[in-house]
Structures are given as structure tokens and as C-alpha cells.
Amino acid sequence: MDVVDLFAGLGGNSEGARLAGCRVVWAANHWQLAVDFHAANHPGVIHACQDLHQTNWADVPSHDVQIASPACTGHTPARGKDRPHHDAQRSTAWAPVSCAEVHRSPFVVIENVPEFLSWVLYPAWLDAMQRLGYSVSPHFLDAADHGVPQHRERVFLICSQSKNPIKLILPKRPHVAVNTVIEWDRHKWSPINKPNRSKKTLLRIDAGRREFGDRFVFPYYSSGSGLKGRSIYRPLGTLTTRDRWGIVDGDRMRMVQPTEALSIMSFRPDYIIPKRKSDAMHLMGNAVPPDEMADILNALKQAA
Predict the structure, then answer these.
(1) Are 168 and 44 in a shared domain?
(2) Residues 12 and 101 in one domain
(3) Are 239 and 226 in contact (CB under 8 A)?
(4) Is the entire prediction scored with pTM above 0.90?
């Protein structure tokens, strides 16, 4: 199968396609940094850095599967108060429709947060896809069920040029604990009880220690997983674009590092990422876990 990757970012969808034996022929993103690192990891792909609303879809190679991950921040409740720029983020969902109108590829796979289906314009979006001949089948998936050491709940809309919607038969893999990918002896740690450590952080660590002992993970920023953190013997919570997760080991702590985040997202260890940590974490936090997309495309092959 030939694949195009819209809103390709770091390349989780493309890497999943590669793992599934597909050929990625074209990938695009509006951010040059993302395009540069996608190209570094997928050098045989035609790349475009552009606003996908402005794309001439006739210039895009023909393909069997369009994969698209439109901006999710306009839909997720974590965005806070709705603002005008969220309208612009939500409008990115129309680019895959435009691509599908030109190419009528046999399949389109759309990834987003589950709240995408509550978007006020989702009925119009769905109607547009159906008018193009697509049957649309929402699949609500957790990356942890695909062997990814992270709970990451997303909706994947499987759009097919078929009379009836396709229900993929997907494997349910054993959950992988985050402690298996934490590099305990590799990175620099800092003392927990150091000057200027915030009271909120110390309270979270104390609660986590009472619940889980000397080793656990906790949300350094935001309220995810509550006050007490999470056991290291289960998948991590969702990895976001913000450097969010802290690790406690006895009387020391540090944040999750990019090389660990690669494994938490199921990228291969030699995948090329930015040296600047904030850029690396942002790109990984926006990505789709490759192992999850590989399972989806393998199942799609079986259903085709």
C-alpha cells in the first residue's frame, strides 16, 4: 500500500506505515522543524512544508491510504477556555476532506482525540466524507493495548470506499510497564529536598511515596493521575507536548528524558530527534505511536 501522511509531524504515522510494510510516498507539515526531522528519518519520501489548506492536491502522488492527524488541541478539554485560535486548529480537519475529494483513495485514516466527534461541525465533516463515497467507522483505541508503555486514548476514523463501515480486527497486546523503559542509571538526577522545590511538588512526592514506595512517576505539571502519581509497574499516562512527567527514585528525582520518551511512544531507539529537549518532547507528544499505527494498517490490509 502507498501512503500519504498529512500533518506528519515527527513521523509516528509514517513509521507505523513502514513497520506495516507500506510505502510512504508524500508527507507534509506546516512546521519546518517537523519536516526536517521527518525527512531525516524518512529520506525516501517527498516532503512539503506548507499550510495544508493551501495545498494543490493534484500535485500529491496517488495513494491507497491517506493518514491524517489534524490538530487536536482545538478539541481536547485540556485546552481550557475556547478561543478564536482553536477555530483555526479545528479547521485543519477539512484538509483531509479536500485531499480525499481529489484522490478518492480507497482508505482514509483520521486520528484525533475522542472529543473530535463532539465538534459542532463534525456532522458536516462526516456528511462531506460520506458524499465522497466513504463509510466511516470510529475506533476508540488506547495505545497501551498495542504494547506501547503509555495510556493514550484516541479515536481513529477508518474511512473506506465501501458500502458498509469496516470494523478492524485488532490485536490486544499485553500492557508494558513504564519501568521497563526508564533509564535509571543514564541521566542526571537532583535531590528532592533542595532549596526552592515547590510545596505542591513535595506534596505530590510525599503522597506518591506513601502509595508506591521509593520509585514511582508523577505529573510534575498539571493534575493528571491525581496528587499521588502512578506506579512504575503500569503504562505511563499520556505523554503530552509539555515536559510533564517526573520520576522519583528514593531521595532523588528528574523529568522523563527524550530517549525515554522515544520508547514511551514506541519509536525505535535510533530515531532521529532534535537535540533541544523542548522541541523533542513537543514533537513526540504530538505523534501517534508507531506500533499502534502499524497494528491499524496491518488490520486494514486484512480487511481490504
Answers:
(1) yes
(2) yes
(3) no
(4) yes
